[in-house]
Amino acid sequence: MASFHHCIKSGKKGTAANHAAYIARQGKYGQREDLISTGHGNMPAWASDNPALFWKAGDKHERANGAVYREHEIALPAELTHEQRKELVDDLIPAMVGDKPYQYAVHAPRSALEGKTNAHLHVMFSDRMHDGIERSPEQMFSRYNAKHPERGGCRKDSGGKNRLALRDEVIQTRKTCAELQNAALEKAGQTARVDHRTLKEQGIDRTPERHLGPVRIQAMSEDEKASVVEARRDHLHRRAM
Length: 241
Known about the structure:
The structure is a single chain. The chain is an alpha+beta fold and 241 residues long. It has helices at residues 16-23, 51-61, 82-97, 137-140, 163-187, 213-218, 222-240; strands at residues 6-12, 35-41, 67-75, 102-107, 120-125. A 5-stranded antiparallel beta sheet has the order 1-3-5-4-2, with helices on both faces. It holds the Pfam family MobA_MobL.
């Protein structure tokens, strides 16, 4: 049952290193057994072998109330095999973050509702853009100097953009995400497709499903769980017609 889930988040100063450990299942999160793969890229030289150094530097040197990282959380189609999902991840990461510093992880926890694996991708990245200038950890996260870039920090991609421009970027990013998933599904010979648009934009007169969460699901009876699953399947069947 391919369905589109693409959540874009941001993390403020002081939260990046812990979140990186969470997605990589390190430290206190190491007991979780749902990690499929993890990696990083586009890091500065001083963090090329250890992305934790990058996030710790951001937590320490980013301005107060500034976002140290942004993140894409993307559901991966269940119809794809492990290798097909890996190919899709390899396509999604550069499309989502470009050449910005990033760390990613693929998790596949078992669904509390259906008992199936729920594979999804986490890509956390810095909005600080490379410009070819070598900077120390402290300088990298300092304020950008337009007249003398070598004296300031790396410029943020979102800097100077108004709310409308940022909204349009989010819409385009979600569209690209859906297109890459559908291309992967088509390549795999699957008929299922995902759609990044809202239900209203798709012409579907239905209230969006509320996220249940593991605690609420655990409190449900087997009949209630079956009812929710059946409703989801019916919706996906009608959408495919």
